[in-house]
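Q: What structure does this chain adopt?
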Amino acid sequence: MLEELEVKVVLPPPITKKTLTLGTKYGPEFACLPFKINLGNFIEAYELGADTILMAGGTGPCRFGYYAYVEQEILRDLGIYYDLLVLEPPERNILEFITKLKKLTGNKPLPQVIRAIKKGFFKIKAADEIEKKAAFFRARELTKGVTDRVWQEFLRNLDQAKNEKEINEAMNMAKESLASIPVDLTRKVLKVGVVGEIYTLLEPFTNFNIERHLGNLGVEVCRTIYLSEWVNDHLFMGLFRNFSRHEEIVREAAPYLCHFVGGHGQETVGGVKYLKKQGYDGVIQLLPFTCMPEIVAQAVLPEVSEQLDIPVLTLVVDEHTGEAGLLTRLEAFCDLLSFRKQRGGNYEKRLISGC
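A:
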């Protein structure tokens, strides 16, 4: 979107242990993992020549609302001076969002700004659509890794797409490649939903590529949050109707959690009920250590799991989390779900919820 508006963009390098080490070294100890990784992102981007931070903002009890400002102060203490631009969720309509973008881009003409937003949104929407399809094929592919190669090729093609036509061409090519993957459609796969804090859900480094690992275990994965839905809900104020499941999922949180607690706490609780109605076998909650909204949701989930008869596994991640231990828990959870499904119901439900 920014490149379309002739703004020079410096992307931080892909997240690595170095990124996390930098953020952990300079960030507060009890700040959550996304905060520390973002801080490491900004330091690495500064080394590449970035001079401005463009970051989303937030409202409510979640600490995300002041991440950018706290990180800016930390960076100044390190002698790193950024200009800070925070895109807060518009309070009334999408015109507020467009106005902020116009200021950022030197008051580019409104049609050009709208065209750039449209292009960026279509790319996000295309990525989410193909990712959902990839989850189906990854759980059923006969040769492990084929779906992942198609996915990576699609991302490269999507990155190079310059307009809506090329975006659609990249999508169609990916759909054809996925359709050509040899699969076992008779395989009895588990269906597991993933709920929780948005950054932990969406960032593969942070969640140890949990969707890929589950797919390799023969599990079809669905998230309750996708980036295109979040953009539509929080930056576009629901401009695209009948596109997002946000309101439906939040409604499902009643009567277990009827109040906004910040972040995605309500969506996490409502997501369990939503996924149960969709026929999923189990749910995994992902959250960063010290995330208050998700801790509130975590406290409610045992009752939700008990009443709805659906197992829920909570995974908390921070800089000390080990991939091997997390994968062991995933394997054990999936084994118990398979055993439970074979026995036809809530057999050993307590054992599963305590996994």
